[in-house]
TrEMBL record:
Native organism taxonomy: Bacteria, Pseudomonadati, Pseudomonadota, Gammaproteobacteria, Oceanospirillales
Gene Ontology biological process terms in this record: mRNA catabolic process
Pfam families documented for this protein: OB_RNB (PF08206), RNB (PF00773), S1 (PF00575)
Official protein name in the record: Exoribonuclease II
Stretches assigned to the S1 motif domain: 563-645
Location in the cell: Cytoplasm
Protein source organism: Franzmannia pantelleriensis
GO CC term, one of those recorded: cytosol
Keyword terms, alphabetized: Cytoplasm, Exonuclease, Hydrolase, Nuclease, RNA-binding
Catalysis performed (reactions): Exonucleolytic cleavage in the 3'- to 5'-direction to yield nucleoside 5'-phosphates
EC number: 3.1.13.1
Annotated GO MF terms: exoribonuclease II activity; RNA binding
Main location: cytoplasm
Protein family according to the UniProt entry: Belongs to the RNR ribonuclease family. RNase II subfamily.
Amino acid sequence: MLQNNALLAQLKQQIRSTTPRVEGVIKATDKGFGFLETDDGESYFVPPPAMKQVIHGDRVAAVVHEEGDKRSVEPDTLIEQGLARFVARVQKRDGRLAVVPDHPSIKNVLKSRIKNSLDEDSIADGDWIVARLVRHPLKENDRGFFAQIDELVVKANDPAVPWRVTLARHALEQASPEAGDDWPLRDEGLAREDLTTEPFFTIDGEKTRDMDDALRVEPRDGGGWRLSVAIADPTAYVDEQHAADLEARVRAFTVYLPGQNVTMLPEVLADDLCSLWEGRERPVLACSLEVNADGSLGDYRFFAATAKSHAKLVYDQVSDWLEGQGEWAPDAAIAPQLEALRDLTEARSAWRAEHALVFKDRPDYEFELDEAGNVLGIRTEERRIANRMIEESMIAANACCADLLADKVGHGIFNVHRAFDPDKAEAAHEFLSAQQIDVEREALTELPRYRELKRALESREDAWLDIRLRRFQGFTSMSALPGPHFGLGLAAYATWTSPIRKYGDMVNHRLIKQVLKGESASAEASQQLTEQLTERRRLNRMAERDVKDWLYVRFLSEAAKQQQAFDAEVIAINRGGMRVRLTANGATAFVPAPMMHSDRDKVVIDDKEGRVQIEGEERFKLGDAIRVVLTEAREETRSLVARPEA
């Protein structure tokens, strides 16, 4: 009877309004207790009994309890569930069904039921599933946690577990789109120039099938070069209302995972009809651009064409030949072009280093897998001359695309990168001043001034400074309107050179074609689309990282058992320890604070400054090259644990 008493409800509300309360996100620990972290950086202890009412990641309101100088909280209101749709493993015990979320900080075993449309007998203990949390203790009328199994992802013993589970976690498609075999070339009202006799060539990885770009290079009389870039033309087959285009818009990108690609377009288009295979005529969208002897760009011209690659070249073979190594050699029609493209690349790199910006070369790490997905080895691929030749050619072509769209259309799919988030620019300025770097505030937000600052910072070759500054920097996003790309040092940048694998490039193709036909451009490049493309790119990158982490753990499990030592670089420092990247293979490992010294109280970590002191002396900082010993390879969390070598 008291439960329905209005006076009691009023009394409860009065107590709530006068009791100290906080709002924040729950962070669980392995020891049963947790913390509530507020948006302004405060942290409150959550005792084990209270943690049974919440789950890691929940945003809650909580009552504050204070006993002397100790503060704890008791969550009582759920603001936002940290767990909604999730991937988990099935647990069947004595006829009872439960799921265990696949999350390093969530150990809860959740009672569950199976969706009516699924066959319960087809789901066994240990299988991977997608579930939803349908009950929560802090929700009104809910008695406890309860989940519903919506989808079987993969059986426990399937070799494809790392790929299937990762794609499901990020709600990405498990396979390439299905499509028929009838793909006629559309009549777009464009006259296509015949380039089939011109000796275009491609340079890609040895196993690449979706080849977007082919090149032709000719030295000009009086110096400089004419670079012709022929790009695969999927919009010649797919119009905006076609089911394949609608599906591509949703997928946004081809997902590249070690050992598996999930294409954006149907494979018959991505790997066959559109791919610029050697000896096959293909419709292309092309750009002929002038590169001056000093590396600056001159005039350019976009046009539709039909082209044929005369050679499928491989990065390492081309680099070896240009460096005077190996036995491979190009034919007579291609050899002088490769030499000319090398010279063009060096000129462009020098021009960008002086007038724009150039990324530091970092190696790529390629997994060698057998058919069952076992890692046979990890190969380090340096950014050699052939890679740089393609990279510089594509940057030049994309700069021309950005100029055309900004001038003739006013919108498109642009890659925009602000060096510093607007709300962090002041903090970045204070940080630089503290490092005795005298810089005006405008140098952080104005492109010409930022170029000067970036060159000055790079000349210091201070790895700690470089990594610390990233804390204040923004990310690349996609925009429907032109904007600067601070990372490249360019006033605008719009890609059109990868339409087989990027939907934004297909959009830009259509806009270029409308310019060529003298038509008014459509409003296809919308803010809603660019936001979706940005988010999808983020998910794809996370999926690639997650699969690699899984494979790294499997590959390095024996090294952890043998306590093998590796060279490493400190890439992140937080309150619990530091994260390092192994130089030999690119894997990341965590070094917990207790691994740094037997007495945890003697380890002082300054996560804001990125420094670690041990017994009062600085021992590690961001960017340091150190030696670590692998101690654990935990497949359940896909994580590696290491300690500093003695």
